[in-house]
Design brief:
By secondary structure, this protein is of the alpha+beta class. It is built from three helices and seven strands; from the N terminus they run ββββββαβαα. The chain starts with 6 loop residues before the first strand and ends in a 10-residue tail after the last helix.
Amino acid sequence: MKTAEWKTYRTRFLVKAKQLSSSLSFTDSLGRQHSGSKGDYLVESSDGILRIAPRQIFEDIYVSMDAPQEAAQDLIAASLFSRTNRSLLASRKQPQSSHARRAITPGVVAQ
């Protein structure tokens, strides 16, 4: 495997990962066998344990932290979208019950 820089990814937890450029197999410190193919990810958790995650699963779960500009743009867009939806919902007339629709004026009897 070519020497590549570790990248930081996040899900609920931060991990470091490298995408494999060739097949890799190893036995971890607990005696578990790990193997992966080109395109899979070698993942190091915060406690230093290494494992291999299949590419499709890894890319579905983890988000790269190496693109701060893109992440910031996504957060801004999500915030604007949220505010726009809230203002649209607030400005929409809410349905009223039939009792609330009647104009009730004290002392006046409706016909």
